[in-house]
Amino acid sequence: MEIDATALKSKGFFQQVQKDKFSLRLCTSGGTISTDYLKKAMEIADTYGVGQIHFTTRQQIEIPYIPAGKVDAVQQLLSAAKIKAFIGGPRVRTVVACLGAGVCKFGQIETGDLAQAIHDTYFGRELPAKLKIAITGCKNNCAKVEANDLGIRGVDHGYLLYFGGCFGHETRVGKPFLPVLKEKDKVLKVIEYTVNFFVSNATKGERLGKLIDRMGMDAFKEAIEGVV
Hints:
The chain contains seven helices and eight strands; from the N terminus they run αββαββαβαβββααα. The chain has helices spanning 5-9, 35-48, 71-81, 112-122, 184-201, 208-215, 217-225; strands spanning 13-15, 21-26, 54-55, 61-67, 96-97, 133-136, 150-155, 158-163.
């Protein structure tokens, strides 16, 4: 039976170098994972994998060495447990976040609720290209926000936003141009506008930073400043 690796990738199963094995990537948000969720991931790894779990650089759970013939059974288990698999491609990706002010003594902003709010609203939304978002609670910048299309850093108990970064085949540093925002609602408003601007203006495969380069930072800045 021929394996449709592309179709499986859209469902969170990534083909390994071993053609008959897949790594399952599970959906997470903000880096905080409940113990119940981990127990279910352990069950999948023990039953269908080789008892291993990997955490990706974007805080996602990955379970390697799942045989192609067991993919359907794993999908049924995920459905019954109401666990979502990772969604890749040209979409809003998993939101990365540190623990923030709720736990870290250096934290200037709460990060978990903000990450969840962004995830609930935007995760998986189809776009012209992928859009990565990260939140860090303080100047230590554990989440490397400048390396994301949209980054949020806690500064003086407010939010400093960075735009246009990426890290991968090409690397560029996101830039801040707004003042420090003091209200979370304004941050969410800027994110809403940025996503809508991206959808309306980007071409296929064009990341946010490239879009800003093409249209001009001044035009983007002027439009964003209008919503805060």
